[in-house]
Write a structure and sequence with these properties.
This protein is mainly alpha-helical. 48% of the residues lie in helices and 10% in strands. The termini are far apart. The structure holds manganese (III) ion.
């Protein structure tokens, strides 16, 4: 059986400064993300049959996970998948841009404009009571949808493909922003890697193709 391990961070802890501070990044990555991985490995110790299943596939098929570990797999495989994804959709800060190519058309169609998208996403992130995430996902019909999930739940469990995600657990921003979640969200747009989001979008559309008429 292969243990789940912490993926390499694609940049230094201070790479997202001043919007996300180095101390938050370090603790978030080395403590929080690592703990989800440790807990997932512990949960799977007595269930070798899942030893070679990826964390993504575990959360895609939660219903097939034995009762005694399902909640732990949901939270900890979810935490592992969500954080691995989160690190990838961020980059060295720049001017707030937005998608290009195919995604910009899809966004205009669904949200009216990039600003329309940002407003709705921000509202969903602010409205998440307690801990959770906000997502932009591709639906099974190839459309776009914004919603937030509690805890470490991921759109993959609902059959959607996430292409952008924002961690709104307090551990993601409290050191720098304390209770000011709105300021954290506004600043986060500076570090979104639209190249990566666009890439996720193209792959999602490609993956859906055989299923579409
Ligand atoms: Mn987190």
């Amino acid at each position: 059986m292969t243990e789940h391990t912490l993926p390499k961070l694609p940049y230094a802890y201070d790479a997202l400064e001043p919007y996300i501070d180095a101390k938050t990044m370090e603790i978030h990555y080395t403590k929080h993300h690592q703990t989800y991985i440790n807990n997932l490995n512990t949960a799977l110790e007595k269930h070798k049959e899942f030893g070679d299943v990826t964390a993504e596939n575990l959360i895609k098929s939660l219903a097939s996970i034995p009762d005694e570990i399902r909640e732990s797999v949901r939270n900890n495989a979810g935490g592992h998948v969500n954080h691995s994804f989160f690190w990838q959709v961020m980059k060295t800060p720049g001017k707030i841009t937005g998608p290009s190519d195919g995604l910009v058309e899809a966004m205009d169609k669904v949200f009216g404009s990039f600003d329309g998208f940002k407003d709705l996403f921000t509202k969903a992130a602010l409205g998440r009571f307690g801990s959770g995430w906000t997502w932009l996902s591709v639906t099974s019909l190839g459309g776009l949808e914004i919603f937030s999930t509690p805890n470490q739940d991921n759109p993959l469990t609902e059959g959607l493909i996430p292409i952008l995600g924002l961690d709104v657990w307090e551990h993601a921003y409290y050191l720098k922003y304390q209770n000011r979640r709105q300021e954290y969200i506004e600043n986060w747009w500076h570090v979104v890697s639209w190249e990566k989001v666009e890439d996720h979008y193209q792959k999602a559309i490609e993956a859906l193709k055989p299923a579409r008429p």
